[in-house]
Amino acid sequence: MLFLLVAGWAQAQFVTIGDAEPMGGSCIKLTNDQPFSEGIAYSTERLILSSQFEIEFDIYLGDKNELGADGITFVIHNDVRGFEAFGTFGEFLGYGGRNSFGSAHISPSVAIEFDTYQNFWQNDPWSDHVAFLENGINSHSSYWNNNNDDWNLEDDQLHSFRFRWNPINTQITVYLDDFVVFQGKRDLINDIFNSQDQVIWGFTASTGRKHNLQYFCFRRLARL
Ligand SMILES: [Ca+2]
Ligand SMILES: [Ca+2]
Fold first, then answer.
1. Disulfide engineering: 52 pairs with which of 13, 137, 176, 224, CB 3.0-4.6 Å?
2. How far is the CA of 136 from the centre of ligand 1 (A)?
């Protein structure tokens, strides 16, 4: 389905998959507060990676800490399925897949995950955490949790999320509530997207046996 979101002067049109649907204003629900929910929303307008930009959202990860799961990803991809690309539910956040079993995953891609549930196969810490992912693989060697083993994102609050890309020095900078939570260099156009500089962007999310309402609100896309 196709929806138009308006946030201040900014507007963006999104297509949705699965349980994702508009909540009013500039927000799109990704998962229901129910087991085994998965939702994905993509902007119909591609990101142009040859230009510098910053894109900003508010994200909501739910209100249940011990009983909540699984998290969301902000994804940029060039998967052949285009606006119908999806990954696997549960610990794969609608982004990745159990590769050894060939389950659905989104690739080529990069993603920022906001993970609210510990899965040993993904090398997750006990705490909620943010991590940089590539090509539909959820496992990560490093993560950010504010150096706090009890850090919790399922606090019934909106959190400000900004993703900044600079193609000149290939630097990615991610802010959560105005803290830098990831910074790294990756030549997205050449090393990930096979020289393509126009890519699809959006959010994926899922739940498993444990669950939370999860959604995002689009704030702005600024060309820098
Ligand atoms: Ca997890
Ligand atoms: Ca938590």
1. 224
2. 14
For residue range 117-166, what is the model confidence (pLDDT) as tens digits? 999 999 999 999 999 999 999 999 999 999 999 999 999 999 999 999 99
Q: In the Cβ-directed half-sphere of 131, how many Cα atoms lie within 13 Å?
A: 23
Domain enclosing residue 17, as ranges: 2-223
Closest ligand (CA of 66): 2
Ligand nearest to the CA of 63: 2
- By the CB criterion, residues less than 5 angstroms from ion ligand 2 are 65, 116, 128, 152, 154
Pairing mode, strands 2-7 and 38-43: unpaired
Ligand closest to Cα of 212 equals 2
> In whole angstroms, what is the distance from residue 121 CA to residue 45 CA?
34
Specify the number of domains making up the chain: 1
Task: Name beta bridge partners: 202.
Answer: 42, 75
CATH number, domain of 98, equals 2.60.120.200
Q: Which two tokens stand for residue 28?
A: 């799109």
Q: Outline where 22-177 has alpha helix (H).
A: none
